[in-house]
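REQUEST FORM: STRUCTURE PREDICTION
Request ID: SP-0412
Submitted by: Lab K.M.
Chain count: 1
Length (residues): 190
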Amino acid sequence: MSESDSDSMKLFEKTIEVENVYSGKILELTREKAELENGSVAYREVVHHSGGVCVVALTDKNEVLMVRQFRYPFKEVLLEVPAGKREKGEDPLQCGIRELKEECGAEAEKIIPLGRLYPTVAYDTEVIYMYLATGLSFGEQSLDDDEFLEVERIPLDEACRMVMEDKIPDSKTQLALLKAQKLIGSMSER
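STATUS: Completed
RESULT:
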C-alpha cells in the first residue's frame, strides 16, 4: 500500500457488508461490518433516520414559542421548540415551515438557518436542521392525530437560562435556543 493510500484510510472505516435488522415507520436498523484503518474488522449498529427540523419562533415581544409534550422513551413531559421529522427527500426549510404551522399555528415572514445538528453521532444518521423564525402571524394548529401538545410563550433570555439550569434537557432545543440568542445578540451589536 502506498503512503497516499494509507493516508486516505486514516481514521476511515470502509463498509464491507450491511445486514438489515429492522425496518419501521420512523427508522431502520442495520448491522454493518467495517474494515478499520489498521485492516481489522469491527461491527457497527446504525440507526437510519430521515432527520428533522426545529424552529426557534420568536414573537415581536422576544418570546419563544415552545411546546410541552410527552416523550415516550423518557416517560416524561418535555419543553421543546417546535420540531418534526422530515419525510425522505423533503427540503428541511419546507419541513420547518410545515411543523411551525402544524404545532403552533404560526407562519413567519423571515426564516434564518441556524445550522445543523448531529444528535447521536456514534450510531444514528439523524440530522436536525435548526431555524430562527421572526415576523410571526398566527392561525390554527393542525396537529397529527397522535400528537398532543401545549404551546407556551417564554422570553428568549428565560428559555436560555432554563437551558443553563438543566431544566430543558432536549439537545436540539438547547442548541437552537443558544444559537438564536447568540445570533440575535451579534445582530443587535452591529
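NOTES: The chain has two domains: 3-48, 52-189.
Reviewed by: T.R.
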